[in-house]
Amino acid sequence: MTADFFAVSDLNAHYGRARALEDVSFEVGKESVAIIGRNGMGKTTLCNAIMSIAPPNATGSIRFLGQELMGKPSHVVAGAGIGYVPQGRRLFPSLSVDEHLRMVRPGRPVGGDGRNWTPDSVYELFPRLAERRKNGGAQLSGGEQQMLAIGRALLTNPLLLIMDEPSEGLAPAIVENLIGVFRSLEEAGLAIILIEQNLSVATAIAKRQIVMVAGRIFTETTAEDLANDPEAQRRFLGVEPLATT
Question: SS3 sequence, 204-237?
């Protein structure tokens, strides 16, 4: 069932002679999955290859709903039903919040709950953006910028949302709010691939945890097992173990 939804098979990617991804294969169903790993392990390159954004020299297969997407331009990937929230948000400093949202060409309403996302429904999801709708991208806090980047991606009405380091640089209170939003989106039928270094965020959102090491899928585990394995936390992420109660 998962292979019919989204599947990456034997994905290899190079930048010049430097290999960034090696034989990466995994499948995702209509669920939340976290891909974790230290910096430089190939996680963002994986996103670039999937979305065909500044793509490396890549080979392999990327299939979504039975359609082969490898080598297709970015607008075809997005039009197939995959939304993307890039690392660093990539907003336009001179455009207002409202302009960011209204410049997006809506995708067909393919969301799992049949919802057709509009700027107004984004404002319902993120009331803070409604308050800041006339402010430019450069005038927003980090949390507000991330809300806008997520809202912009939702306007394409995706079935699958890929988010690259969404918690990066955000205050803990903002991160907790975003975790709640991600859970509500999943409950509404949206599948999520979460690229994260923040283990507490990754394990709070996704039961499945895929570990990347040196451009390869090293292992797959569960949020519960990873949270209870301090040695794995240090080994794969170089972090102090999560606090347990």
Answer: HHCCEEEEEECCEEEEEEEHHHHHCCHHHHHHHH
Q: DSSP label at 165?
A: S
DSSP single-letter state for residue 83: E
**Whether pLDDT at 55 is above 80:** no
Name the pairing type of β-strands 18-28 and 32-36: unpaired
Residue 61, phi then psi, degrees to nearest 5: -135, 135
Distance CA 125, CA 117 (A): 10
Phi-psi region of 87 (alpha: psi -120 to 50; beta: other; left: phi over 0): beta
pLDDT in tens, 2-48: 668 999 999 999 888 888 999 999 999 988 999 998 888 899 999 99
In the three-class reduction of DSSP (H, G, I as helix; E, B as strand; rest coil), residue 30 is classed as coil
3-class DSSP assignment, residue 43: helix
DSSP codes, 52-79: TSS--EEEEEEEETTEE-TT--HHHHHH
Asked if 30 and 189 count as a contact pair (C-beta separation under 8 A), the reply is yes
DSSP state of 18: E
One CATH from 3.40.50.1400, 3.20.20.60, 3.40.630.30, 3.40.50.300 for 2-237: 3.40.50.300
